[in-house]
Amino acid sequence: MTTPPKEKEPSKKLTPFQTPKGMRDILPEESPYWEKARESTADIADFYGFGYIEPPVLENIDLFVRGVGMGTDIVEKEMYTLKTKGGDNLALRPEFTASMIRSFLENGMSRMPQPVKLWYFGPVFRHENPQSGRFRQFYQNGFEIIGGESDPIYDAQVIVAGVRFLEAMRIKAPLIHINSIGCRSCRAIYRKKLLDFYRKEMAAGKKKGKVVCRDCERRMDTNVLRLLDCKDEACVELRGRAPSILDSLCSPCRTHFKGVLELLDEIGLPYMLNPYLVRGLDYYNRTVFEFYTEGENIALGGGGRYDYLAELVGGKSTPAVGVAMGIDRIIGILKDKDIDFGPRKKDKVFVVHVGETAKKKAFALMEEFRKANIRALEALGKDSLQAQMKVADKEEVQIALILGQKEIYEGVVIVRDMKTGTQENVPIGKIVEEVRKRLHKN
Ligand code: AMP
């Protein structure tokens, strides 16, 4: 998994400034992965009819307090907040979903044909403890379907979009963990059953010592469902005996969940029922899901239905469902497994110059290739032929074009096939056509 960002040790600083803890630069060598992630998201969105949306990075704090929920780790401990000079209380977004609903309501999207399908790609910020696959600034893409009916087809569609994204990123055998956490009515009944169970266990186990972890003792009062997805050994053992939410679902929620599973069956997507999956955010109802892959125990993405979120942030009741994928984690796995997307396009040409006059001509030639939409590279800042050819080799270009004093005088360019080493002179007026012809042949 991705190497965790290094602890910042002020005494050992080699450079005056370093990235803040849990944050990092995405450097050019990683860019093919990011380009692939963005392109794949856009392709999937295009196919399934999602429109791109880019909300601001800062939102009013209350959007998250009311939307994501007071009892959640994100709101309690992880938000980056600030007060502006004008006195507004803002937060760097810790997730996108609340912004999607805010934008849906603010921009009158309920008056558009329903449902509205939106996709996004961008950074989110959570003040968590950095560790393997866990950053403080990380990237998510997502697909959200807002409005219309609370129809299982939309749950299935966002799950499929998530799976197709993982497949496009060459993640092997994506596995869906799925559960239903019911609606307000049946969840309230289940919550009470669960609380009774844990209270009894706590009372019985008091003399033996720890029954659940410290965090879960606290969560019993704030968010008892979260006890089910705690990773602490004692909590995991105890939940095996806890009542299952699936036995408490009301009839409409049961039918809804069955509908989602039948749709996944219809297209042969494998899934695993996971009654302990509740997700950390308050706004979910009915379907919740997460994506995993073999050999990794951290989620690569997740989502669910959030029919109550619009109301929670002051809007009209609006059914909605969505998925968010963790791009940094997915890219971390690809890098660990040496899965390489390579440079974006190999069909490119390198312009080499020898001498000042040729340098000017080469500079102008670059613009001709740009106009012709042909990828051309150069090292115009280097004067030595050898140094330029070294760059051309490294970039694995197919063709090098060499311009020297003699060539300028004769009005030609030397065209060198980098694979075979063969060279020929081509009149400079015909060079763009010649390059186009050669690149297309390959
Ligand atoms: P969530 O909605 O919190 O489940 O986030 C969706 C996805 O984002 C998760 O399944 C992870 O893949 C990813 N993710 C969440 N938190 C982090 C983090 N701190 N660093 C990197 N990726 C994260």
Topology:
Layout: H1 31-48, E1 51-52, E2 58-60, H2 61-67, H3 73-78, E3 81-83, E4 89-92, H4 97-106, E5 116-125, E6 137-146, H5 152-168, E7 175-180, H6 184-205, H7 214-222, H8 233-239, H9 251-266, E8 271-273, E9 285-292, E10 301-305, H10 309-312, E11 320-326, H11 327-336, E12 348-353, H12 356-371, E13 375-378, H13 385-394, E14 399-403, H14 405-410, E15 412-417, E16 423-427, H15 431-441
Parallel strand pairs: 1-5, 7-8, 12-13, 12-14
Antiparallel strand pairs: 2-4, 3-4, 5-6, 6-11, 7-9, 9-10, 10-11, 14-15, 15-16
Helix pairs in contact: 1-5, 5-9
Bound molecules: adenosine monophosphate (AMP).
Residues 95, 126, 128, 133-135, 138, 140, 299-302, 324, 326, 328-329 line the site of adenosine monophosphate.
Textual characterization of the structure:
The protein is of the alpha+beta class and 442 residues long. It has 2 domains: 28-183 and 250-336, BirA Bifunctional Protein, domain 2 (2-Layer Sandwich); 348-434, Anticodon-binding domain (Rossmann fold, 3-Layer(aba) Sandwich), CATH 3.40.50.800. Helix content is 38%, strand content 20%. It has 15 helices and 16 strands. The protein has helices spanning 31-48, 61-67, 73-78, 97-106, 152-168, 184-205, 214-222, 233-239, 251-266, 309-312, 327-336, 356-371, 385-394, 405-410, 431-441; strands spanning 51-52, 58-60, 81-83, 89-92, 116-125, 137-146, 175-180, 271-273, 285-292, 301-305, 320-326, 348-353, 375-378, 399-403, 412-417, 423-427. The strands form 3 sheets. An 8-stranded mixed beta sheet has the order 1-5-6-11-10-9-7-8. A 5-stranded mixed beta sheet has the order 13-12-14-15-16, with helices on both faces. The protein has a 3-stranded antiparallel beta sheet with strand order 2-4-3. The longest helix is centred in the middle third of the chain and has 22 residues, at 184-205. It is elongated and about 95 Å long. Adenosine monophosphate is lined by residues 95, 126, 128, 133-135, 138, 140, 299-302, 324, 326, 328-329.
